[in-house]
Protein backbone atom coordinates (compact mmCIF):
# COMPACT_ATOMS: atom_id res chain seq x y z
CA UNK A 1 0.00 0.00 0.00
CA UNK A 2 1.19 3.48 -0.83
CA UNK A 3 1.95 5.25 2.48
CA UNK A 4 1.89 8.70 0.90
CA UNK A 5 -1.70 8.19 -0.29
CA UNK A 6 -2.65 6.85 3.10
CA UNK A 7 -1.33 9.96 4.88
CA UNK A 8 -2.93 12.48 2.53
CA UNK A 9 -5.71 14.39 4.31
CA UNK A 10 -9.21 13.88 3.01
CA UNK A 11 -10.09 16.57 0.41
CA UNK A 12 -12.41 19.28 1.68
CA UNK A 13 -14.90 20.96 -0.59
CA UNK A 14 -13.76 24.49 -1.51
CA UNK A 15 -17.21 25.80 -0.74
CA UNK A 16 -19.66 24.06 1.57
CA UNK A 17 -23.13 23.13 0.28
CA UNK A 18 -25.68 25.92 0.51
CA UNK A 19 -29.24 24.78 1.13
CA UNK A 20 -32.15 26.79 -0.20
CA UNK A 21 -34.32 27.62 2.82
CA UNK A 22 -36.77 30.12 1.34
CA UNK A 23 -38.39 30.47 -2.10
CA UNK A 24 -41.10 32.97 -3.06
CA UNK A 25 -42.61 34.89 -5.96
CA UNK A 26 -42.97 38.68 -5.99
CA UNK A 27 -45.21 40.28 -8.63
CA UNK A 28 -44.61 43.94 -9.47
CA UNK A 29 -46.48 46.13 -11.99
CA UNK A 30 -45.06 49.53 -13.01
CA UNK A 31 -46.72 52.15 -15.27
CA UNK A 32 -44.86 53.20 -18.37
CA UNK A 33 -44.93 55.92 -21.00
CA UNK A 34 -44.91 54.37 -24.47
CA UNK A 35 -44.10 57.44 -26.56
CA UNK A 36 -47.39 57.14 -28.43
CA UNK A 37 -50.81 55.59 -28.11
CA UNK A 38 -50.21 51.90 -28.72
CA UNK A 39 -53.10 49.47 -28.97
CA UNK A 40 -50.57 47.14 -27.40
CA UNK A 41 -52.03 44.07 -25.83
CA UNK A 42 -50.65 42.60 -22.63
CA UNK A 43 -52.65 39.43 -22.12
CA UNK A 44 -55.89 40.58 -23.72
CA UNK A 45 -56.41 44.24 -22.85
CA UNK A 46 -54.46 47.34 -23.85
CA UNK A 47 -52.50 48.32 -20.78
CA UNK A 48 -49.86 50.83 -19.88
CA UNK A 49 -48.47 48.79 -16.97
CA UNK A 50 -45.57 46.41 -17.22
CA UNK A 51 -45.17 43.35 -14.98
CA UNK A 52 -42.11 41.76 -13.45
CA UNK A 53 -42.61 38.37 -11.80
CA UNK A 54 -39.62 37.77 -9.54
CA UNK A 55 -38.56 34.49 -7.99
CA UNK A 56 -36.51 35.16 -4.86
CA UNK A 57 -34.45 32.31 -3.40
CA UNK A 58 -32.57 32.51 -0.11
CA UNK A 59 -29.88 30.15 1.20
CA UNK A 60 -29.20 29.06 4.77
CA UNK A 61 -26.41 31.70 4.97
CA UNK A 62 -28.77 34.43 3.83
CA UNK A 63 -27.51 34.70 0.23
CA UNK A 64 -30.37 35.93 -1.96
CA UNK A 65 -30.72 35.01 -5.65
CA UNK A 66 -33.13 36.84 -7.97
CA UNK A 67 -34.81 35.20 -10.95
CA UNK A 68 -37.64 36.18 -13.27
CA UNK A 69 -40.50 34.36 -14.97
CA UNK A 70 -42.16 35.81 -18.08
CA UNK A 71 -45.42 37.50 -17.06
CA UNK A 72 -48.09 39.86 -18.40
CA UNK A 73 -51.27 41.42 -17.05
CA UNK A 74 -50.81 41.21 -13.25
CA UNK A 75 -51.03 37.44 -13.55
CA UNK A 76 -51.52 36.32 -9.94
CA UNK A 77 -52.54 32.84 -11.11
CA UNK A 78 -49.15 32.40 -12.79
CA UNK A 79 -47.40 33.54 -9.61
CA UNK A 80 -49.53 31.11 -7.56
CA UNK A 81 -48.78 28.21 -9.93
CA UNK A 82 -45.04 28.77 -9.64
CA UNK A 83 -45.30 29.29 -5.88
CA UNK A 84 -47.28 26.08 -5.26
CA UNK A 85 -45.97 23.68 -7.95
CA UNK A 86 -42.35 24.68 -8.63
CA UNK A 87 -40.84 26.41 -5.62
CA UNK A 88 -41.61 23.74 -2.96
CA UNK A 89 -39.37 21.36 -4.97
CA UNK A 90 -36.43 23.74 -4.54
CA UNK A 91 -36.50 23.96 -0.75
CA UNK A 92 -33.66 22.00 0.89
CA UNK A 93 -31.66 21.65 -2.34
CA UNK A 94 -27.97 22.59 -2.58
CA UNK A 95 -27.86 25.84 -4.57
CA UNK A 96 -24.61 24.82 -6.27
CA UNK A 97 -26.34 21.94 -8.11
CA UNK A 98 -27.93 24.11 -10.78
CA UNK A 99 -28.17 21.54 -13.59
CA UNK A 100 -29.34 18.81 -11.25
CA UNK A 101 -32.07 20.97 -9.73
CA UNK A 102 -33.20 22.11 -13.18
CA UNK A 103 -33.34 18.55 -14.50
CA UNK A 104 -35.27 17.31 -11.44
CA UNK A 105 -37.84 20.13 -11.78
CA UNK A 106 -38.29 19.46 -15.50
CA UNK A 107 -38.57 15.73 -15.03
CA UNK A 108 -40.97 15.87 -12.09
CA UNK A 109 -43.20 18.49 -13.74
CA UNK A 110 -43.11 17.22 -17.34
CA UNK A 111 -46.84 16.39 -17.38
CA UNK A 112 -47.69 20.06 -16.84
CA UNK A 113 -46.06 21.09 -20.10
CA UNK A 114 -42.70 21.56 -21.74
CA UNK A 115 -43.58 25.11 -22.82
CA UNK A 116 -45.45 27.71 -20.80
CA UNK A 117 -46.01 28.69 -17.16
CA UNK A 118 -44.26 25.75 -15.47
CA UNK A 119 -41.19 26.24 -17.65
CA UNK A 120 -41.31 30.00 -16.94
CA UNK A 121 -41.08 29.12 -13.23
CA UNK A 122 -38.18 26.71 -13.80
CA UNK A 123 -36.46 29.41 -15.89
CA UNK A 124 -36.77 31.86 -12.98
CA UNK A 125 -35.32 29.34 -10.53
CA UNK A 126 -32.36 28.70 -12.84
CA UNK A 127 -31.61 32.44 -13.15
CA UNK A 128 -31.80 32.87 -9.36
CA UNK A 129 -29.45 29.90 -8.81
CA UNK A 130 -26.86 31.42 -11.18
CA UNK A 131 -27.16 34.69 -9.23
CA UNK A 132 -26.49 32.79 -5.99
CA UNK A 133 -23.55 30.93 -7.56
CA UNK A 134 -21.96 34.23 -8.57
CA UNK A 135 -22.54 35.77 -5.16
CA UNK A 136 -21.07 32.74 -3.35
CA UNK A 137 -17.99 32.66 -5.56
CA UNK A 138 -17.64 36.45 -5.82
CA UNK A 139 -17.66 36.72 -9.62
CA UNK A 140 -20.09 38.19 -12.17
CA UNK A 141 -22.35 35.86 -14.16
CA UNK A 142 -20.54 36.76 -17.42
CA UNK A 143 -17.30 35.49 -15.83
CA UNK A 144 -19.00 32.26 -14.67
CA UNK A 145 -20.08 31.79 -18.30
CA UNK A 146 -16.48 31.94 -19.50
CA UNK A 147 -15.77 35.66 -19.52
CA UNK A 148 -17.22 38.81 -21.07
CA UNK A 149 -16.06 39.63 -24.60
CA UNK A 150 -17.11 43.28 -24.08
CA UNK A 151 -17.90 45.69 -21.26
CA UNK A 152 -21.10 46.88 -22.90
CA UNK A 153 -23.75 45.50 -25.22
CA UNK A 154 -25.51 47.29 -28.08
CA UNK A 155 -29.26 47.58 -27.58
CA UNK A 156 -32.03 47.75 -30.17
CA UNK A 157 -35.16 49.78 -29.58
CA UNK A 158 -38.08 47.37 -29.79
CA UNK A 159 -40.97 49.73 -30.50
CA UNK A 160 -44.54 49.12 -29.39
CA UNK A 161 -47.20 48.42 -32.00
CA UNK A 162 -48.75 51.86 -32.59
CA UNK A 163 -50.93 51.05 -35.59
CA UNK A 164 -50.63 54.56 -37.02
CA UNK A 165 -47.94 56.25 -39.08
CA UNK A 166 -47.62 59.44 -37.01
CA UNK A 167 -46.72 57.63 -33.77
CA UNK A 168 -44.44 55.06 -35.39
CA UNK A 169 -42.50 57.80 -37.23
CA UNK A 170 -42.26 59.89 -34.03
CA UNK A 171 -40.97 56.90 -32.02
CA UNK A 172 -38.52 55.94 -34.79
CA UNK A 173 -36.95 59.40 -34.90
CA UNK A 174 -36.93 59.75 -31.10
CA UNK A 175 -35.15 56.40 -30.68
CA UNK A 176 -32.53 57.45 -33.25
CA UNK A 177 -32.02 60.77 -31.42
CA UNK A 178 -31.48 58.76 -28.22
CA UNK A 179 -28.60 56.93 -29.92
CA UNK A 180 -30.19 53.69 -31.13
CA UNK A 181 -28.79 52.34 -34.42
CA UNK A 182 -31.22 49.41 -34.65
CA UNK A 183 -35.01 49.68 -34.41
CA UNK A 184 -37.53 46.86 -34.35
CA UNK A 185 -41.14 47.42 -35.34
CA UNK A 186 -44.18 45.42 -34.22
CA UNK A 187 -46.41 46.78 -36.99
CA UNK A 188 -48.35 44.42 -39.26
CA UNK A 189 -49.55 46.77 -42.00
CA UNK A 190 -47.50 48.06 -44.90
CA UNK A 191 -48.02 51.82 -44.44
CA UNK A 192 -46.60 51.94 -40.90
CA UNK A 193 -43.66 49.69 -41.79
CA UNK A 194 -42.77 51.75 -44.86
CA UNK A 195 -43.17 55.05 -42.95
CA UNK A 196 -40.76 53.93 -40.22
CA UNK A 197 -38.15 52.65 -42.70
CA UNK A 198 -38.30 55.96 -44.60
CA UNK A 199 -38.10 57.95 -41.34
CA UNK A 200 -35.04 55.94 -40.27
CA UNK A 201 -33.28 56.54 -43.58
CA UNK A 202 -29.61 55.67 -43.23
CA UNK A 203 -29.57 56.49 -39.48
CA UNK A 204 -30.73 53.06 -38.31
CA UNK A 205 -31.37 49.52 -39.52
CA UNK A 206 -34.99 48.44 -39.13
CA UNK A 207 -36.24 44.93 -38.41
CA UNK A 208 -39.85 43.75 -38.26
CA UNK A 209 -41.51 41.55 -35.63
CA UNK A 210 -45.05 40.60 -36.53
CA UNK A 211 -45.81 38.14 -33.67
CA UNK A 212 -47.24 35.30 -35.81
CA UNK A 213 -50.22 37.00 -37.52
CA UNK A 214 -50.27 35.30 -40.92
CA UNK A 215 -50.96 32.03 -42.69
CA UNK A 216 -48.06 30.78 -44.80
CA UNK A 217 -49.70 32.16 -47.97
CA UNK A 218 -50.21 35.59 -46.36
CA UNK A 219 -46.66 35.60 -44.99
CA UNK A 220 -45.31 34.83 -48.47
CA UNK A 221 -47.27 37.78 -49.89
CA UNK A 222 -45.80 40.13 -47.26
CA UNK A 223 -42.36 38.63 -47.77
CA UNK A 224 -42.53 39.74 -51.40
CA UNK A 225 -44.22 43.08 -50.67
CA UNK A 226 -41.68 44.11 -48.02
CA UNK A 227 -38.57 42.98 -49.88
CA UNK A 228 -37.71 46.47 -51.26
CA UNK A 229 -37.54 47.85 -47.68
CA UNK A 230 -34.38 45.83 -46.91
CA UNK A 231 -35.47 44.90 -43.40
CA UNK A 232 -32.63 43.70 -41.16
CA UNK A 233 -34.71 40.65 -40.24
CA UNK A 234 -38.32 39.40 -40.36
CA UNK A 235 -39.53 37.89 -37.07
CA UNK A 236 -42.32 35.36 -36.52
CA UNK A 237 -44.36 35.98 -39.69
CA UNK A 238 -46.31 32.67 -39.50
CA UNK A 239 -49.08 31.35 -37.27
CA UNK A 240 -48.77 29.24 -35.17
CA UNK A 241 -45.26 29.77 -33.76
CA UNK A 242 -44.47 26.03 -33.91
CA UNK A 243 -45.26 25.86 -37.64
CA UNK A 244 -41.58 25.41 -38.50
CA UNK A 245 -42.33 23.86 -41.90
CA UNK A 246 -44.42 26.91 -42.84
CA UNK A 247 -41.73 29.27 -41.55
CA UNK A 248 -39.17 27.37 -43.63
CA UNK A 249 -41.19 28.12 -46.78
CA UNK A 250 -40.86 31.85 -46.07
CA UNK A 251 -37.14 31.53 -45.31
CA UNK A 252 -36.66 29.56 -48.55
CA UNK A 253 -37.52 32.60 -50.70
CA UNK A 254 -34.26 34.15 -49.52
CA UNK A 255 -35.88 37.60 -49.35
CA UNK A 256 -35.54 38.02 -45.59
CA UNK A 257 -33.46 36.67 -42.76
CA UNK A 258 -35.98 34.87 -40.55
CA UNK A 259 -35.91 35.22 -36.74
CA UNK A 260 -37.96 33.17 -34.26
CA UNK A 261 -37.77 31.33 -30.96
CA UNK A 262 -39.38 33.41 -28.20
CA UNK A 263 -42.22 30.88 -28.03
CA UNK A 264 -39.93 27.86 -27.73
CA UNK A 265 -39.70 25.80 -24.55
CA UNK A 266 -36.31 24.14 -24.71
CA UNK A 267 -33.18 23.29 -26.69
CA UNK A 268 -35.12 20.62 -28.58
CA UNK A 269 -37.50 23.15 -30.12
CA UNK A 270 -34.44 24.86 -31.60
CA UNK A 271 -33.13 21.52 -32.86
CA UNK A 272 -36.48 21.07 -34.67
CA UNK A 273 -36.48 24.65 -36.00
CA UNK A 274 -32.97 24.29 -37.36
CA UNK A 275 -33.64 20.82 -38.81
CA UNK A 276 -36.65 22.30 -40.63
CA UNK A 277 -34.35 25.03 -41.98
CA UNK A 278 -36.83 27.56 -40.55
CA UNK A 279 -34.56 30.23 -39.03
CA UNK A 280 -31.47 32.36 -39.59
CA UNK A 281 -31.66 33.91 -36.11
CA UNK A 282 -32.56 32.05 -32.88
CA UNK A 283 -34.35 34.04 -30.19
CA UNK A 284 -34.70 32.03 -26.98
CA UNK A 285 -36.05 33.94 -23.96
CA UNK A 286 -34.18 33.38 -20.69
CA UNK A 287 -37.40 33.75 -18.65
CA UNK A 288 -39.43 31.36 -20.87
CA UNK A 289 -37.04 28.79 -22.30
CA UNK A 290 -35.29 27.29 -19.26
CA UNK A 291 -33.08 30.04 -17.91
CA UNK A 292 -29.37 30.69 -18.30
CA UNK A 293 -28.54 26.96 -18.41
CA UNK A 294 -30.83 26.23 -21.37
CA UNK A 295 -29.73 29.33 -23.29
CA UNK A 296 -26.10 28.20 -22.99
CA UNK A 297 -27.03 24.93 -24.73
CA UNK A 298 -28.98 26.79 -27.42
CA UNK A 299 -26.04 29.18 -27.96
CA UNK A 300 -23.73 26.17 -28.48
CA UNK A 301 -26.20 24.60 -30.93
CA UNK A 302 -26.40 27.86 -32.89
CA UNK A 303 -22.61 28.10 -32.93
CA UNK A 304 -22.34 24.59 -34.36
CA UNK A 305 -25.07 25.14 -36.96
CA UNK A 306 -24.13 28.63 -38.12
CA UNK A 307 -27.29 30.23 -36.76
CA UNK A 308 -27.21 33.69 -35.14
CA UNK A 309 -27.99 33.64 -31.41
CA UNK A 310 -29.92 36.80 -30.48
CA UNK A 311 -31.97 36.24 -27.29
CA UNK A 312 -35.49 37.62 -27.00
CA UNK A 313 -35.81 40.04 -24.08
CA UNK A 314 -39.08 41.87 -23.53
CA UNK A 315 -38.70 42.03 -19.74
CA UNK A 316 -36.97 44.38 -17.31
CA UNK A 317 -36.08 42.38 -14.20
CA UNK A 318 -33.41 39.75 -13.42
CA UNK A 319 -34.16 38.10 -16.79
CA UNK A 320 -32.97 41.21 -18.60
CA UNK A 321 -29.84 41.45 -16.42
CA UNK A 322 -29.08 37.76 -17.05
CA UNK A 323 -29.54 38.34 -20.80
CA UNK A 324 -26.97 41.18 -20.68
CA UNK A 325 -24.43 38.78 -19.11
CA UNK A 326 -25.29 35.97 -21.54
CA UNK A 327 -24.91 38.31 -24.49
CA UNK A 328 -21.58 39.69 -23.25
CA UNK A 329 -20.26 36.12 -22.89
CA UNK A 330 -20.75 35.38 -26.63
CA UNK A 331 -17.81 35.84 -28.98
CA UNK A 332 -20.25 37.14 -31.60
CA UNK A 333 -22.02 39.73 -29.45
CA UNK A 334 -25.79 39.64 -30.05
CA UNK A 335 -27.89 42.78 -30.00
CA UNK A 336 -29.89 43.18 -26.79
CA UNK A 337 -33.64 43.79 -27.14
CA UNK A 338 -35.30 46.49 -25.07
CA UNK A 339 -38.96 47.42 -25.36
CA UNK A 340 -39.05 51.11 -26.13
CA UNK A 341 -40.81 52.77 -23.19
CA UNK A 342 -40.01 54.91 -20.17
CA UNK A 343 -40.98 53.71 -16.71
CA UNK A 344 -42.44 55.66 -13.82
CA UNK A 345 -39.82 53.92 -11.63
CA UNK A 346 -36.76 51.86 -12.58
CA UNK A 347 -36.25 48.45 -10.93
CA UNK A 348 -32.46 48.89 -11.08
CA UNK A 349 -32.32 52.67 -10.50
CA UNK A 350 -31.40 53.26 -14.15
CA UNK A 351 -28.37 50.90 -14.21
CA UNK A 352 -29.96 48.86 -17.02
CA UNK A 353 -31.21 51.87 -18.99
CA UNK A 354 -29.29 52.22 -22.27
CA UNK A 355 -27.10 55.28 -22.79
CA UNK A 356 -26.59 56.19 -26.47
CA UNK A 357 -27.97 52.76 -27.40
CA UNK A 358 -25.67 50.73 -25.19
CA UNK A 359 -25.90 49.12 -21.76
CA UNK A 360 -23.01 48.30 -19.42
CA UNK A 361 -22.40 44.72 -18.30
CA UNK A 362 -22.76 44.75 -14.49
CA UNK A 363 -19.44 44.05 -12.76
CA UNK A 364 -20.63 42.85 -9.34
CA UNK A 365 -20.97 39.19 -8.26
CA UNK A 366 -23.79 37.13 -9.76
CA UNK A 367 -26.21 39.26 -11.74
CA UNK A 368 -24.27 42.20 -10.35
CA UNK A 369 -27.43 44.14 -9.60
CA UNK A 370 -30.19 43.61 -7.06
CA UNK A 371 -33.60 45.20 -7.62
CA UNK A 372 -34.52 48.34 -5.63
CA UNK A 373 -36.57 47.06 -2.69
CA UNK A 374 -38.38 50.39 -2.23
CA UNK A 375 -39.58 50.21 -5.87
CA UNK A 376 -40.74 46.62 -5.31
CA UNK A 377 -42.63 47.70 -2.17
CA UNK A 378 -44.31 50.59 -3.95
CA UNK A 379 -45.49 48.66 -7.04
CA UNK A 380 -46.06 45.18 -5.62
CA UNK A 381 -49.29 43.45 -6.69
CA UNK A 382 -50.86 41.98 -3.57
MG1 LIG B 1 -40.81 38.98 -30.99
UniProtKB/TrEMBL annotation:
Alphabetized Pfam families for the sequence? MR_MLE_C, MR_MLE_N
Instruction: Extract one GO molecular function annotation from the record.
Output: magnesium ion binding
Q: Per its UniProt entry, which superkingdom is the organism in? A: Bacteria
Any GO BP annotation = amino acid catabolic process
Q: Which residues form the Mandelate racemase/muconate lactonizing enzyme C-terminal domain?
A: 166-257
Which keywords appear in this protein's UniProt record, sorted alphabetically? Magnesium, Metal-binding
Identify which cofactors the protein needs according to its UniProt entry: Mg(2+)
Q: Which InterPro entries match?
A: Enolase-like_C_sf, Enolase-like_N, Enolase_C-like, Mandel_Rmase/mucon_lact_enz_CS, Mandelate_racemase_C, Mandelate_racemase_N_dom, RHMD-like
Gene3D superfamilies in the record: Enolase-like C-terminal domain (3.20.20.120), Enolase-like, N-terminal domain (3.30.390.10)
Q: Which CDD domains match?
A: MR_like
Give the protein's recorded name.
Answer: L-alanine-DL-glutamate epimerase
Q: Which organism is it from?
A: Bradyrhizobium canariense
Amino acid sequence: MNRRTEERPAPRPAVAPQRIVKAETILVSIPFESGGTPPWSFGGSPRLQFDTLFVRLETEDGIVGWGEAFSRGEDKSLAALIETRVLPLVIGRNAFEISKIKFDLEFQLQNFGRIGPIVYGISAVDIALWDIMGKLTGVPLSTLLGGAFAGEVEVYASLMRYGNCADVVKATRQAIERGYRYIKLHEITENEIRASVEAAGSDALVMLDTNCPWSVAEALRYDELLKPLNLYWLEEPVWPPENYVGLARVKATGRHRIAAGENAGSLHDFVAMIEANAIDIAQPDVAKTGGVSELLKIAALCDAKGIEFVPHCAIFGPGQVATIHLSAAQRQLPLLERLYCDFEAELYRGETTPKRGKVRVPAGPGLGLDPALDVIDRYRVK
